Amino acid sequence: MRWITKKRLKSTAKAYLFLAPFLVLFIGMVVYPIGLGVKLSTYGQRGARMWYVGAENYTRIFSDSMFWQSFRIPLFLLLIQVPLMLFLATILAFLYETRRRDGAVFRFLYYLPYTIPGIVSGLVWSYIFSDSMSPLRPVLDLLGRSDVKLLTRDNVPPILLVIILWQFTGYTAFLVYSSLIAIPREYSEAAQLDGASFWQIAFRIKLPLLRDPLITMFIFNAIGAMQVFNEPWMLGGLVVLPLNYTPAMYIYNSAFSQGRFTYAAAMGIILAGLTCLFSLYILRTASKQMLGRRLE
User: Fold this and answer.
1) Homologous superfamily of 71-243 in CATH?
2) Mean of the pLDDT values across residues 218-241?
3) Which tops the pLDDT comparison, 77 or 149?
4) Where are the extended beta strands (E) located within the chain?
């Protein structure tokens, strides 16, 4: 028994030794900042002076209309951009499958925008839609539409839609394709023997099997929509946007433009909590539907 206990302790110590680098980084880069943010959110601030206020920041946020109005753009992205991107990514993944042998170049080209940092892509698209430097301006001049402004406050949501679709659709399609090639070929071969076409196999057999990966990608992209910052921030250099255009922009402006760091910390905690609740709701709803289908 002693020998078994010592062996178990030794193996446990080895496991924690291998995990130690990750745990140190995780605690230092994730757990500690979250804990510090929670602590700061319970303090009031005026300049460099801070004092404990408990939940006062949170009660102020729930009556702060500017904070709740900032969710209009995330909701637009959540309802329009995320479903549209998943649909386009799924179609691309099916097209990838038709070119398994020589499709590596196409997959690389579609994946390439994801490798470009968000700030850089924001700069590039700001140049494309700028009124003075846009390469689209000569085309508009030829069409007699010189008076049209490409970048206005009303045009920012569809421009954000274009930028995010351009940047993330190829990456999402690559993930869908990775799940797609893991589906056993027996399903496709049996359907082909019954006379099913490629797209019938794709939508009636393979698409239902992609349910779990698509739900996971929907959650990750929904989290990204809730936290969108880089793209509207870069476009804000060319068109005047409200301080609360998105929740992340309102939190940033409250902290670094207005000096309300503790209030911004409380808003960050609420934003993280809402994102977690939404993710859990999607997971529970999807798991209940899957369980109900299995029982049927």
Assistant:
1) MetI-like (1.10.3720.10)
2) 86
3) 77
4) 43-46, 49-52
